[in-house]
Amino acid sequence: MPFFRRAACAACVFLLPFAGASALAQEPTGWSKDWYLTLGGMGFQAPRYQGDDQRRLTFSPVIALGRGQRPVFVSRNDSPSVMLLGAGGFHAGLVGRFVPSQRESRSDDLKGLGSVKWGLEAGGFAELYPVEGIRVRGEVRQGVRAHHGVVADLALDGYSDLVPGLQVSGGPRITWASKDYKSTYFGVSDSQSQASGLAPFDPQSGLHAMGVGAAISWKSTDRLTIGSFAEYRRLMGDAADSSLVRERGSRNQVMVGVTATYTFGYVPGARP
Questions:
Q1: CA angle, corner 50, sides to 46 and 55, nearest 5?
Q2: 75: domain range?
């Protein structure tokens, strides 16, 4: 499977500088001994733009900063985060996410719609472990530069260790988005309609997508974790009704890929 080989190699190459920095993992200068930093990368095939019916190979970083005991479970869907509160089965903190540009030249489907600049989404998260083997996590993020809307994600994941170090997980996801967000990626103004040939469309706030995901991860060491995942999302509401999706794409969105992460600093039980 050429994709998985290319993606796995890319993720591992991304980690090589980190894995070689064993001194940081032991006694990083000026680093509080109960903090940890997780860095890594993902290689995956995903739609070229939201609503597209064709996919392309994409890479994305994985970043997490926290203090004390690490969360029992981490999902690929989690935005890069800083955990500020961890008490029992409840964690909360800040999140940030890079939003790549959507260039008009990326696909013939987008011609006449104009390009969307790259940007960020910043906000907060909260997660709860109501019982062993279940995590519920919510994120709310405000767009900066790329769009000026608000996006909220809610996910429930069940997870279990098949054998020590080998974990499987999965569960449903749901996303809500504001009008500003949907207008940026799914709206078609009158001028864009004339340039693209798509019917004009003015989306409103509301349910954006629902789906399900599954993953398997292997802790090859106390600090190094590799895994693979698959996600299915179905665009809902005005996102699915957009003329871009109805006329040129699909409301069914599939993503598959691999991940690799390495954790520096405080890892209970880890060997130096």
A1: 30
A2: 2-265
Residue 184 falls inside a structural domain? yes
The answer to whether 18 touches 262, Cβ cutoff 8 Å, is yes
Residue 136 belongs to domain with CATH number: 2.40.230
Q: Any residues with CB less than 8 A from the CB of 250 and at least 6 apart, and which? A: 51, 52, 53
Number of structural domains (the chain) is: 1
- Enter the pTM of the model: 0.84
Distances (CA, A) of 226 to 87, 131, 270: 27, 25, 17
Taking only the tens place, the pLDDT of each residue in 154-212 is: 999 999 999 999 999 999 999 999 999 999 999 999 999 999 999 999 999 999 999 99
Under a CB-based contact definition with an 8 Å cutoff, are residues 196 and 111 in contact? yes
Q: Which residues of the chain have pLDDT under 70?
A: 1-32, 69, 266-272
Tell the residue number behind the tokens 């599939």, with chain if given: 254
Distances (CA, A) of 140 to 27, 79, 121, 151: 35, 10, 9, 6
**Within-domain flag for 272:** no
The residue written with tokens 């008490």 in the block is: 87
